[in-house]
Here is the input.
Amino acid sequence: MPRGPRDDASGVVHHVMARGIERGSIFRDDLDREDLLGRLDRLCPELGFCCLAWALMTNHFHLVLRSGPIRVSRLMARLGTGYALRFNQRHDRVGHLFQNRFRSRRATTDGDVVGLVLYVCRNPLEGGLVAQPDALARFEWCSVGALTGARTSRRFESIGETLALFDDDPTRARAKLRKSLGATE
Here is the structure.
């Protein structure tokens, strides 16, 4: 049965996920992680996307994206193809890196967007990459550090837009975000 078209339009928020083939690792070291983030730094502004949250795991990654005038499929094609080619070159491998096409789910309400942001931000905790909620702000491979003010934001991160989901005041928004994540700091 053929797959249907993606539910996409300008300004739509998507939870996007891409997994390694056979659930294999897509990040072997920090250079791999920086390569993917560098591509997002370049592609999101170029194509008009806002990234509300993200997390890099070992064998997959999550993005919460608000699409611009370009379809999310175009962003992901450029991101995935460029990254896979460089990964294969760096690690002397051939073949597909990602399993199937990326998955995406369209957010339908503001509450849904908040839920997706929290789910993605908590993914390193749920996946065992950090031991407690307070450690999420120090984990450099997700958006929590920038959202809480623990680090400078990357070019592709839409910190103000994400914080506005929690409160109009950035200080209160950060406190609400930390509380929602279960952090005590």
